[in-house]
Specification:
- It is an enzyme of class 1 (oxidoreductase).
- There is one protein chain.
- The chain folds into 2 domains: about 1-200, Rossmann fold (3-Layer(aba) Sandwich), CATH 3.40.50; about 200-439, NAD(P)-binding Rossmann-like Domain (Rossmann fold), CATH 3.40.50.
- It contains 19 helices and 14 strands.
- It has about 450 residues and is of the alpha/beta class.
- The structure holds uridine-5'-diphosphate-xylopyranose (UDX).
Length: about 450
């Protein structure tokens, strides 16, 4: 089996490396020459645990290669995966598909013999059908099938998610295409992973339905956390109490500063647009989008209030800038709303993130970037935890106390225990859990 992976972004690179680990011969293609040069030198452009090893070992074994030459990669490939970016288009929530269609055209020109063209990027319902049309228009004689095969990878655990997924969804409408996909995913058949074959449209919608459902689940628990604060209940116990009901499930019920990342914000917006355009508006998801956007701004207000209502002359230490741990990704991270709001309110912000500093510097101005957690909190009026990196879970609280002007912490990820913090003499604020006064 030989495949070409068009686009070496997050999805393309992880999927390409994982397919090569399955024993498939993979050629990863990107227009960006410097990126390909770096990959050829074994440099991985993103931070994803385990990815560097996987890329290096498969490249050394000759199963994984990188090129800017799309034509050469597509020629003779059994399947070509489109894994290019689909950013949100300006002036609305629609996904910008120009890169997808441009790739489809180039693939069509280069194909020889029967080829399965797979959309791996998250694309709106109907895109596969349009890719089909574009290819047929470019090469009326071509022998091909278009397949939709969405990824459900989480940043930070993408390799495990690929190798041991809950399920694989494949929108393939001919036996020939289904057979190619079955062969590619053979190792997953062996571990009895459910593989769902559907139509193109169903597969495309399934991806959006999954992400918007999860975004709604998080938003539900975030609102429940706010209610817990008002009535004196503990949202962690509520989450456990409902999550043990198999119909609900216990995952994605952790409250926080609002969801971010490369998928949920973009996909919720895109599905809202698709639904409106189709005359079947998804009012629940519209509300989810609205609540989540407001929540990130409310988190800044919460910090200001915690600091006594004014940030003039105050210094805040921020731990964690990425949208989640184990990634350097800053896309739609709550920090992008919270940090500027604190600076606008007059605060000095000292920040540290284990992997996200380079990315953060591109997006957040006016921040004092520090080289460690303790350096960030030195002389600060309050400490704010924005991302739940492991190294922030076990801070030496005695040292924290000695560095801060007063022991005060806003923990927007609930990684500390309110009782323990009170016992340690901290003024402590978290999300949706009853507080105890410091002695
Ligand atoms: C998500 C989907 O999980 C994945 O299947 C899809 O392919 C891509 O989008 P990812 O964005 O990498 O993955 O991260 P995820 O772990 O899902 O977290 C997304 C956001 O939700 C983060 O901002 C995270 O902090 C937040 N979140 C997640 C919560 O606030 N609470 C939770 O309980 C879970």
């Amino acid at each position: 089996m030989r495949i070409a992976m068009i686009g070496t972004g997050y999805v393309g690179l992880v999927s390409g490396a994982c397919f090569s680990e399955f024993g498939v011969e993979v050629v990863c293609v990107d227009k960006d020459e410097s990126k390909i040069e770096r990959l050829l030198r074994g440099e991985i452009p993103i931070y994803e645990p385990g990815l560097d090893k996987l890329v290096t070992s498969n490249a050394e074994a000759g199963r994984l290669s990188f090129t800017t030459d799309l034509k050469e990669a597509v020629k003779g490939a059994d399947a070509v995966f489109i894994a290019v970016g689909t950013p949100t288009r300006r002036g609305g929530g629609h996904a910008d598909l120009s890169y997808v269609y441009a790739a489809a055209r180039e693939i069509a020109e280069a194909m020889d013999g029967y080829t399965v063209v797979v959309t791996k990027s998250t694309v709106p319902v109907g895109t596969g059908r349009e890719v089909e049309r574009v290819i047929r228009e470019t090469r009326p004689d071509a022998e091909f099938d278009v397949v939709s095969n969405p990824e459900f990878l989480r940043e930070g655990s993408a390799i495990n998610d690929f190798m041991r997924p809950d399920r694989v969804v494949i929108g393939a409408e001919t036996d020939r295409a289904r057979e190619v996909m079955r062969t590619l995913y053979r190792p997953l058949f062996l571990i009895e992973t459910p593989i769902l074959f559907t139509s193109l449209e169903t597969s495309e919608l399934t991806k959006y339905a999954a992400n918007t459902f999860l975004a709604a689940k998080i938003t539900f628990i975030n609102e429940m956390a706010d209610l817990c604060e008002k009535v004196g209940a503990d949202v962690h116990d509520v989450a456990k109490g409902i999550g043990l009901d198999g119909r609900i499930g216990k995952k994605f019920l952790h409250p926080g500063p609002g969801y971010g990342g490369s998928c949920f914000p973009k996909d919720t917006l895109a599905l809202v647009q698709t639904a409106r355009d189709s005359g079947a508006p998804l009012r629940i998801i519209e509300t989810v989008v609205d609540i989540n956007a407001k929540r990130k701004r409310q988190m800044a207000d919460r910090i200001v209030e915690f600091c006594g209502g004014s940030m003039q002359g105050k210094t805040v230490a921020i731990l964690g800038l990425t949208f989640k741990p184990n990634t350097d990704d800053m896309r739609d991270s709550p920090s992008l709303d919270i940090v500027p709001a604190l600076i606008d309110a007059g605060a000095t912000v000292r920040a540290y993130d284990p992997e996200g500093m380079d990315e953060a510097k591109k997006h957040l101005d006016g921040v004092v970037y520090c080289s460690g957690a303790y350096e960030a909190m030195d002389g600060a009026d309050a400490l704010v935890i924005l991302t739940e990196w492991n190294e922030f879970r076990s801070l030496n609280l005695t040292r924290v106390k000695s560095l801060l002007k007063e022991p005060a912490m806003v923990d927007l990820r609930n990684i500390y225990d309110p009782k323990q913090m009170a016992d340690q003499g901290f003024r402590y604020q978290c999300v949706g859990r009853p507080l105890r006064k410091a002695d």
